[in-house]
């Protein structure tokens, strides 16, 4: 379980809404989101309803304005608590759609796919264990994508419009 509080204004001011489980549409609770407080758990917040649009990973802490969570704007429309995962992490990434081409296995964080494996694109992946975050750029920056245990045959299945992945990070327990 987790607890997250959304505030319409910066610095935890204005109308607020407290959430302790996933919510596919937050629009009826607030019109904009300029600050967030995560009391417990780890969360992904999404720019659009139904877990679509830009994604932002948040862990326990205070985010007094949307730039603090690397937000592009003050729009948050859905959220999902990330389940705690106690065992190891394991994923396979592929250079082609449908698990084709060269396969690379990951069990730990990778701050730069290009430096470590000489690749810049991931076209498909199979997340075997754990929860992960794909980042568009190296050093855990740019757009973020939550990767849950599942098979992703094409990059659009994890919400991206491009195959570009610069870094990958595990979400530890």
Automatic annotation (TrEMBL):
<keyword id="KW-0273">Eye lens protein</keyword>
<dbReference type="GO" id="GO:0007601">
    <property type="term" value="P:visual perception"/>
</dbReference>
<dbReference type="Pfam" id="PF00030">
    <property type="entry name" value="Crystall"/>
</dbReference>
<protein>
    <submittedName>
        <fullName>Gamma-crystallin M2-like</fullName>
    </submittedName>
</protein>
<dbReference type="GO" id="GO:0005212">
    <property type="term" value="F:structural constituent of eye lens"/>
</dbReference>
<comment type="similarity">
    <text>Belongs to the beta/gamma-crystallin family.</text>
</comment>
<feature type="domain" description="Beta/gamma crystallin 'Greek key'">
    <location>
        <begin position="41"/>
        <end position="83"/>
    </location>
</feature>
<dbReference type="InterPro" id="IPR050252">
    <property type="entry name" value="Beta/Gamma-Crystallin"/>
</dbReference>
<feature type="domain" description="Beta/gamma crystallin 'Greek key'">
    <location>
        <begin position="89"/>
        <end position="129"/>
    </location>
</feature>
<comment type="function">
    <text>Crystallins are the dominant structural components of the vertebrate eye lens.</text>
</comment>
<feature type="domain" description="Beta/gamma crystallin 'Greek key'">
    <location>
        <begin position="130"/>
        <end position="172"/>
    </location>
</feature>
<keyword id="KW-0677">Repeat</keyword>
<feature type="domain" description="Beta/gamma crystallin 'Greek key'">
    <location>
        <begin position="2"/>
        <end position="40"/>
    </location>
</feature>
<dbReference type="GO" id="GO:0002088">
    <property type="term" value="P:lens development in camera-type eye"/>
</dbReference>
<dbReference type="InterPro" id="IPR001064">
    <property type="entry name" value="Beta/gamma_crystallin"/>
</dbReference>
<dbReference type="InterPro" id="IPR011024">
    <property type="entry name" value="G_crystallin-like"/>
</dbReference>
């Amino acid at each position: 379980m987790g607890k997250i509080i959304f505030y319409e204004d910066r610095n935890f001011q204005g109308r607020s809404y407290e959430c302790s489980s996933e919510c596919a549409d937050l629009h009826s609770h607030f019109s904009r989101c300029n600050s967030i407080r995560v009391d417990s758990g780890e969360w992904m917040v999404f720019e659009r309803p139904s877990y679509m649009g830009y994604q932002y990973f948040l862990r326990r802490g205070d985010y007094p304005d949307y730039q603090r969570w690397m937000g592009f704007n003050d729009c948050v429309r859905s959220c999902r608590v990330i389940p705690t995962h106690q065992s190891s992490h394991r994923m396979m990434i592929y250079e082609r759609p449908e698990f084709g081409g060269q396969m690379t296995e990951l069990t730990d964080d990778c701050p730069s796919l290009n430096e470590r494996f000489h690749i810049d694109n991931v076209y498909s992946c199979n997340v075997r264990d754990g929860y992960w975050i794909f980042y568009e750029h190296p050093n855990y920056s740019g757009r973020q994508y939550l990767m849950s245990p599942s098979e992703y045959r094409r990059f659009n299945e994890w919400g991206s419009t491009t195959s570009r992945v610069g870094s990958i990070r595990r979400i530890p327990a």
